[in-house]
């Protein structure tokens, strides 16, 4: 089969790799139908994640069809269409029992495309399948579901929930990439008074506006002044860091009000300065975290019901074997205006659901047809 293989910082290619096989009775083998590229994959290619060894197939977000299972797998069977979570869970260790699956000590956590071969391939071995894949309703398109593998639960759990977004809050999101845009959508579930988005690219700020941001500002146009103007000099109740560079984290600590919350979502590859000389007396709470994906079932139900517009973040689609071109488009988002790129050739009919309109006509939760 083919897979996208990391060969060292700055080097990766679509090449022949061995077919995956069942290694443990809790494994499943999944034929990949739809896959996407994450900003974390770009961090890996830059050398920011040294645990990833050369020779590893990248990727941790995909939708596909189960083709084989180990003897202990009970919740899925061959032929099932599933969402593969970016986090694997043994379900037995202390952290998994606390729903902190990202910290799994039983061989799970973030392993796909990190410590073992990942999803950017024609087939993938998924460990702990019973807790690490989610059967998909026929009403959910693959290009919509694949964004629930990582970015939506990450934005929701590590950003919105860790930041304790509340009704009436002023929320600042620094970074309008896919994670930041997903944070806009999920933050709005809690009815904040306003959402302010900061980014370097006007095209991403335009996308932020479309997805519900109340105010946007370029990073070089004094976002602190805008936040002060909109809050009467108080500052933001919540600042979400969605980039992963020192400057964006330090900006969040300057934008937040006394007693406010800074939730770091971004993957950092370099140290950031923590200005405790300014922060110690301001009662600021700072949280960090790797996603646990405990919210994925809830987000999947919302998507199936039409309440979470995940597919609006998809800007480019490619065949699976155009992985190198897709990476190039995604890595140069400032020029290409790419948000999420989706690769694959999933074909299925979206099953209509009955409408409850007075006329009794039938409708669909999504466009009937195929995805790619």
> Please, what is the average pLDDT?
92
Instruction: State the total count of DSSP E strands.
Output: 16
Structural class: alpha/beta
Relative helix content: 25-40%
* Major sheet: 7 strands, mixed
- Tell me, briefly, the overall form: globular
The helix/strand order is EEEHEEEHEHEHHEHEHEHEHEHEHEHHE
Poorly predicted parts: 347-372
Amount of beta strand: 15-25%
Compute the CA-based radius of gyration: 21 Å
Terminal-residue CA separation = 20 Å
Report on this structure:
By secondary structure, the chain is α/β, with parallel strands linked by helices. It contains 13 helices and 16 strands. Strands 3, 5, 6, 7, 8, 15 and 16 form a seven-stranded mixed β-sheet that branches. The longest helix has 11 residues, at 151-161. The chain starts with a strand and ends in a 28-residue tail after the last strand.
């Amino acid at each position: 089969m083919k897979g996208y293989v990391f060969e060292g910082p700055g080097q990766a290619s679509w090449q022949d790799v061995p077919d995956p096989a069942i290694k443990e009775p809790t494994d499943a083998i999944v034929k990949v139908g739809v896959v996407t590229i994450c900003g974390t994959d770009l961090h890996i290619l830059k050398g920011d994640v040294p645990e990833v060894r050369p020779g590893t197939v990248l990727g941790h977000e995909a939708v596909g069809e189960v083709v084989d299972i180990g003897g202990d797998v009970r919740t899925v069977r061959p032929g099932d269409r599933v969402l593969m979570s970016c986090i694997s869970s043994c379900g037995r260790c202390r952290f998994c029992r606390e729903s902190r699956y990202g910290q799994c000590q039983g061989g799970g956590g973030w392993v796909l495309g990190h410590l073992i071969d990942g999803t950017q391939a024609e087939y993938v071995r998924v460990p702990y399948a019973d807790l690490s894949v989610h059967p998909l309703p026929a009403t959910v398109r693959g290009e919509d579901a694949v964004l629930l593998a990582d970015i939506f639960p990450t934005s929701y759990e590590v950003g919105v929930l860790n930041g304790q977004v509340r009704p009436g809050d002023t929320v600042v999101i620094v970074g309008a990439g896919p994670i930041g845009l997903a944070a806009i959508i999920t933050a709005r579930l809690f009815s904040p008074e306003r959402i302010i988005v900061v980014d370097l690219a006007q095209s991403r700020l335009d996308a932020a506006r479309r997805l519900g941001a109340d105010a946007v500002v370029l990073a070089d146009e004094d976002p602190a002044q805008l936040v002060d103007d909109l809050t009467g000099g108080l500052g933001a109740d919540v600042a979400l860091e969605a980039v992963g560079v020192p400057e964006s984290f330090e900006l969040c600590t300057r934008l937040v009000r006394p007693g406010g919350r800074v939730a770091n979502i971004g993957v950092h590859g370099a140290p950031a300065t923590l200005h405790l000389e300014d922060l110690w007396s301001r009662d600021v709470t700072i949280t960090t975290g790797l996603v646990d994906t405990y919210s994925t079932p809830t987000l999947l139900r919302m998507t199936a019901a039409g309440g979470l517009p995940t597919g609006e973040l998809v800007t480019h689609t490619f065949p699976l074997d155009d992985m190198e071109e897709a990476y190039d488009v995604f890595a140069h988002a400032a020029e290409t205006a790419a948000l999420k790129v989706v690769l694959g050739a999933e074909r299925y009919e979206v099953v209509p659901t009955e409408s409850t309109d007075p006329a009794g006509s039938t409708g669909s939760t999504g466009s009937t047809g195929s995805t790619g």
